[in-house]
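Support request, please re-run this one:
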Amino acid sequence: MSGARISSRPSIAWWVLAAAAVAALVVPGSLEGLAPEPTAEHLRLGAWSLKGALVLFGIGVVVVDRLTSWFNARHPTQATLTAPWDGVERVALAALLIVALALRLVHLDGGLWIDEISTLLTYVRRPMLETFVVYDSQNQHPLYTLMAQGSIALFGDTPSALRLPAVLLGVASVAAFYRLARRVVSREEALLGAALLTCSMHHVWFSQNARGYTGLLALSLVATEALLRLVRREGSVRQLAWVYALSMGLATWVHLTGALIAVGHAVILLLLLVAPRLVGAPATPGTGRGDATRDVVVPGLAAIGLAALVSILLYSPVLPQLPDAILNAPPTVPVAEGAAPASIVWKNPLWFVTELMARLAAGVPGGMVAVVLALVVLAAGVLSLLKAQRLLLALMIMPMVSTIGVMMATKHNLWPRFFFFAAGFAVLLAMRGGFALVGWGASAVRREAMPLARRVAIAGASAVVVASAFTVPRAWGPKQDFTAAADFLRQRSVPGDAVVTLGVTNEPIRHYLGVAADSLERVEELQQVEAAHARTWVVVTFPVLFEARQADVAEWLRGRYDTAAVFPGSVGGGAIVVLVRDKSRA
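Re-run finished. Output below.
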């Protein structure tokens, strides 16, 4: 035990508390005038939420500072077991990041899909200040909105500028993955895993999706590494606590499901107290055992608590709006054709599994066969880490468990994209599993074959990376080709024709692309339009969503309209379908 004493000198934490208190006094009693949409009551409550959050944050900073000082006085920093990075390794990682950036800039201006268009029209084109005080739907990813606003201010209002933050966050996630993987597996596995993320069709797709998912991935990887190091005492406890708190707080600000990742981490730390061997507690200094103590867990819980305060502070102006936005949000996102009605299927865990498998199969060489084989390799990775890195395994798996558990308990839609944050964990498990399988096979035959087995594993993983690279072009097409559909309507419709948007096509076709059209909800309205025009064009997409919301209209279209054109996209079930009814041909 170290004989160090806690310094009695005022630390920066007290200055933070003082600044937070002053800021709380300066904040006005209402945020009215900053944005037109939230009610005056919401803006007034938001102001007081901000005041309270500032004070809580300041107090939390002081508490965490005292706790980490106490911990540092009791326990010296442990030596890291990770070998230092060499020059070749740094060059290899830099090359991967350059390739990752290049792959994600190709065709970045492709067609936007409905969620991106909604983000652009509803949030990104607002004044930047309004981003801090408006949260009226789950389509708002505040941190991403701010980054997109900055990008558009610099590069213009284009799809490429809107998506550029996702690109940069995607590249950052490759670097964050490598930092984490380098601490827990071999350098070869870490580099090959980073290469697989670089050349993954799914990763490229999400990196060209103007949403916050690549940010959630990158920040969750940074937070996981910081928490792992903190519990193992591999570095300054105070610095690691702040790295975790800021990365996890920003992860929650980029997407609310980030909070569920922190919940999973908290569960693991509590398990360290009651069942240390179950989750692989780090060795207590001087004992060499894996017995967890309060001295190990308290700094981690303090970091999670500080992350919660950061999240509350960032969301505080919109806290009064969150319950309605979360609990009363209508379904807005599609499922593949042929699925059951939207009100049932999107909350069904079986649908989630089958949809996830289908989406994975669409983006890997070998399709479903490759997905099944990958599951075997993942299982081997789990088994390998269960023996050697149980704490890391728990920190990777529990956030997924907490996320799906909370979503099922609240009857939330189970979108596979909500679990994209685990892509880095999956790749790490896959690499570890592949190397472990080859190693187990070699040791069963002859121990002397292990060096050769490692070369075989490296060659096999390299082949997987190369094969994956060939699937990347699948990510470069339009996500939804509303632009082509709008051009088709302008070319084919003539004066006297009616153009009708149904379902979610209204915002993209009318408001984003400026096509003169009527947006209808009821079959009677459509019948009136048909009666007044010789020819009627109808635009639909996401048939399951459309039929769930407008079943009578969908039934009316069957047998009465011909398919004029179909514009496919990479979003499942998101093809744009243009239908036409011509009275002269009836």
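The chain has three domains: 12-74, 87-475, 482-585. Residues 40-74 form the longest helix (35 residues).
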